[in-house]
Amino acid sequence: MFNYEKIILNGLNLMPSEDFSTDIQGLFDSNNNNTTSDLYTDGRKVGNTKLDSKTITITVYKKRDNFKAMLQLNHIINQGEIDLEFKIDEDDNIYYCKVLKESIMYDDIGNAAITFIVCDPNIYLRDYKELSLEKRVEGGFLLPASFTIPDGFNFIETELGNVGEIINEGFQTIYPEIIIEGDGSNFEIMNKTTGETLYLDYSISTDDRIYIDCNPKSRKVRNNNASILKYKHGVYLSLIAGANDIEVNYDGEVIVTVRWREAYV
Questions:
Q1: Which residues of the chain have pLDDT under 70?
Q2: How far apart are CA 219 and CA 198, in angstroms?
Q3: 115-162 pLDDT, tens per residue?
């Protein structure tokens, strides 16, 4: 169906390779469904909706005898959920998904047929895209300290930099990661297109880094590596296909970075 130019399994190059030639079957089959045992979560407790995914076969053909290379392949596929990256020869992008080994069978000459469960129903672009938002105020007046402000005088100020647009060029609704760094508090992050708002009643200083994962399978809210989920209110954000208007509000001086991988079936 497709000609693969590059296949990388958890860092091991299976194509191109001096040791292997490789093919993937079932990755784009729309009727190839497998229900995993992983459940959606809100970051506090396990949910009750199972993920539909796919079962695929990666066939690895030996190009030469290299027992050490086969041992490395066996070691990698037994590491639990691992990264599968691939490139199609008519596309410049590298795509990515997580896979979990189900079984492996060898033929008489040492070629391997490895069955994997794809751990997510989507295939993603490997590389993140991102939008950084940093609130700033423009306008007003610069006055000497001795100036007395008359009653009823209004400063005309414009708040900029806290609104941006994300274009999700994929076909699926996706769930971003949000990173907050700086010195601030009382964070409000909105997708005004979907009506979703996430609140975080928390304060950080310059040594802190807040990380929010909105993916239903792996949701979390952390400052450095410590969970601060109890300070989160509202809902996690999603990014629908097409344009998404994002707005952030907070007290202090921080940079809010929203990053995402576009998803395809």
A1: 1, 30-52, 136-161
A2: 13
A3: 999 888 789 999 999 999 987 665 555 556 565 666 665 655 555 558
The residue among 104, 97, 112, 116 whose CA lies nearest residue 34 is: 116
Q: Is 255 exposed, middle or buried (0-12, 13-18, 19+ CB in 10 A)?
A: middle
**In the chain, what are the domains?**
4-125 (2.40.30.200), 129-264 (2.60.120.860)
pLDDT in tens, 64-77: 999 899 999 999 99
Give the pair of three-digit tokens for residue 238. 């999603």
Partners of 184 in the β-ladder: 204, 252
| Assigned token pair, 124 | 């993603």
pTM, rounded to two decimals: 0.79
Strands 129-133 and 157-160: unpaired
